[in-house]
Specification:
The chain has 220 residues and is of the alpha+beta class. Helix content is 35%, strand content 25%. Bound molecules: oxidized coenzyme A. Residues 1-217 form the 2-oxoacid dehydrogenase acyltransferase catalytic domain.
Length: 220
């Protein structure tokens, strides 16, 4: 953490934050969670949030690139190896779900369960932490609303999720209703990615998350 975060602190980072309507995903998860738990698979919001990242990266591949330390070479990565920051007994570890672009949401859930069990036991092998191309930090699993995530070099983008909260919202008729809201905070390497690209990526990701049914149109 000392080495990686010191290196990260030298990179000019662009921050971008937004609010996400989680109503449909909360409903979808409660439907699928019971079914998956029968097969022993824990199903949180993360598998869907991770898949939505991959679907959005298809349209914004620069966010899935890596750069060398002096930022003279940028490599666009074909695989979406999405790292997930884990709070483990050994401290912060960021294993990654490999080739998310080829995986179903179910397969991502199974892989996340595997990584979480190994992380909790302090037994994550180096292969699971190597070669991440994008990172996510679900700090909302612990609490909080916003975070300023820091890049994990050589990757150039990271997102942090706050806690899903129940809040009062107005519907399209102007009537008050119960809403589920989550905040997302992105950071990107501003040497290679401009802010508008981060905003467009975030909008596309947010659209998938707010309308999870739309994801099936773009899944392979
Ligand atoms: N808002 C509301 N509920 C949340 C939530 C959020 N943002 N994130 C998780 N939950 C819920 C889950 O849905 C699950 O609910 P059920 O018990 O009803 O199924 C429960 O909290 C436990 O989830 P989890 O933590 O086991 O699973 P996850 O896939 O959501 O997250 C992991 C996995 C590894 C990301 C998380 O456990 C973790 O370690 N988070 C901390 C990350 C961290 O330390 N970030 C800082 C890095 S920089 O120092």
């Amino acid at each position: 953490m000392v080495r990686t975060m010191t290196e990260s602190g030298r990179i000019p980072q662009f921050g971008y934050k937004d609010e996400v309507d989680m109503n449909k995903l909360v409903e979808l998860r409660s439907l699928l969670k019971t079914r998956l738990s029968e097969g022993g698979v824990a199903f949180s919001y993360m598998p869907v949030l991770i898949k939505a990242v991959s679907l959005a990266l298809v349209h914004h591949p620069v966010l899935n690139s890596t750069v060398d330390p002096d930022c003279t070479t940028i490599t666009y990565r074909a695989d979406h190896n999405v790292g997930v920051a884990m709070d483990t007994p050994l401290g912060l570890i960021v294993p990654n779900v490999k080739r998310v672009q080829e995986k179903s949401v179910y397969e991502i859930a199974v892989e996340l369960n595997r990584l979480q069990s190994l992380g909790a036991a302090g037994q994550l092998p180096p292969v699971d932490t190597a070669d991440g191309t994008f990172s996510l930090s679900n700090i909302g699993a612990i609490g909080g609303t916003y975070a300023n995530p820091m890049l994990l070099p050589p990757s150039v983008a990271i997102g942090a999720f706050g806690r899903v909260k129940v809040v009062p919202r107005f519907d399209s008729e102007g009537d008050l209703e119960r809403g589920h809201v989550m905040h997302v905070s992105w950071a990107a390497d501003h040497r290679v990615i401009d802010g508008a690209e981060v905003a467009r990526f975030s909008n596309r990701w947010k659209n998938y998350v707010e309308n999870p049914a739309s994801m099936i149109l773009d899944m392979k």
